[in-house]
Amino acid sequence: MSAPFEERSGVVPCGTPWGRWYQTLEEVFIEVRVPPGTRAKDVRCSLRSRHISLAVCGQELLQGKLFDSTVTDEGTWTLEDRQMIRIVLMKTNRDAGNCWTSLLENEYAADPWNPGFDFSGAEISGNYSKGGPDFSSLEN
């Protein structure tokens, strides 16, 4: 069973206990639900190349080693409507074969048959020279 597909954006969100995450070839998006009325001064967010931590009002919501490296200076977080934090990370490796299979190492896994992308409407020409992820070891 695959995750729900958002047709407009072409991504498959990966649900988590704290919200969801999804990816494009270039970026990783993390959406964390926070208590209504949360203020920016209540938020402590650290974005490093391979590590992330997020706490609200002293309560740790997300912390760990990222699946792959990101461009530290390009990472941002915003508080939206005082009830959700959106974190955007720029992937260091933006090749088609660099599809993150989880957000953190061994935690918050993507659906292995559709890891954050939907190519059902794509025309496959076979002209990409660097190939893509190898899913041949996965069972159907």
From TrEMBL:
<dbReference type="InterPro" id="IPR008978">
    <property type="entry name" value="HSP20-like_chaperone"/>
</dbReference>
<dbReference type="GO" id="GO:0006457">
    <property type="term" value="P:protein folding"/>
</dbReference>
<dbReference type="GO" id="GO:0005737">
    <property type="term" value="C:cytoplasm"/>
</dbReference>
<dbReference type="InterPro" id="IPR037902">
    <property type="entry name" value="p23_NUDCD2"/>
</dbReference>
<dbReference type="Pfam" id="PF04969">
    <property type="entry name" value="CS"/>
</dbReference>
<dbReference type="InterPro" id="IPR037898">
    <property type="entry name" value="NudC_fam"/>
</dbReference>
<feature type="domain" description="CS">
    <location>
        <begin position="14"/>
        <end position="104"/>
    </location>
</feature>
<dbReference type="GO" id="GO:0051082">
    <property type="term" value="F:unfolded protein binding"/>
</dbReference>
<dbReference type="InterPro" id="IPR007052">
    <property type="entry name" value="CS_dom"/>
</dbReference>
<protein>
    <recommendedName>
        <fullName>CS domain-containing protein</fullName>
    </recommendedName>
</protein>
